[in-house]
Structure formats: C-alpha cells, structure tokens
What does this fold into?
Amino acid sequence: MSRHTVRTGVVAIATCLVFALGASAALAGRTQILVSDGNATAGKTLQVKPFQIIWTGDATGVFAGRGTAGKRPKFGRLHWSKWTATEGKGSGANWLNDCIPFCAAGKYTPFNANFTAYRPRIISGFKVFTRLKVVYTGGVPHGFKRTGVFSLGHSAKQFFWNFPV
It folds into this structure.
C-alpha cells in the first residue's frame, strides 16, 4: 500500500469519528422530556419540544395544545416559548377523558395550563427533565390543585410520570 492510500484511509476514518462523536455529543446535550410511558427511547418516548405528552399509561390524560374537545378530540400542539438545557416553558392544556360510561366512549375536556419542565438529570444514559410543573390558567379539573408538579419516575429504562400529591 502506498503512503497516499494509508494517509487517505486514516483521514477518512478520523473524519467519520469526528462526525459520529459530534452527533452523539449534540444529542447528549439536548435535554429531553418523557412523552409517553415505557422504555426510554430518544426521539420516541423521549423528545425535545414535544407536541404532546401522554402522562397517563392509558392516555386518559394528555398535555397538548388547545384544540377541539369532545368524543373525537383534535388535540393541538404544545407551544414551547423556551427550551434550554436547564428549563422548558410552554403552554397548552391538560386534556382529560371523563371515561363516561367507560374510557373508550368518554369525552375529552381541555383545561388550559402553562408548563415548566425543569431539574435536568442523566438517568439511564439519557439527559431528561425530571419535573414538570403545571399551572392552570382557567378552570381547574376536579381533584387537581391550581399548581402541581409531576415527577419523573423510573425503573431501569422504564420511565413514567408520577402524579402530584
């Protein structure tokens, strides 16, 4: 092999490593939030600036944007006005299913709210927000307080939201 071939090969490998390390560093630097219960997967169950967050295991509670209520709701997109490595601020609504007469036939009602994601931590190799503060700006759903903080729970790579107490 000629020196030129070896040098070209070394440069190509070094370039690939730089791009690979840069991409993983960029991904690691973006703080994500849990959008649905289950195995932690970047880009799926964990996202940056998500359009909605399913905070119950059965999807009877969804943080989403304002939209159309009813038996066939059209959730809007959450609006994030700020998203940094340490905090995310957004607005939308907590959509709750009344499960009457049962959940599959229930009606969703939105309760307008502001959201603050904070307390980033590295858990199971993922940089995630571990707290989500919800402040209702209009009516407050039965059984909720005007302000509540959801905390991220996990068992290995299973992530889930804990209801405020």
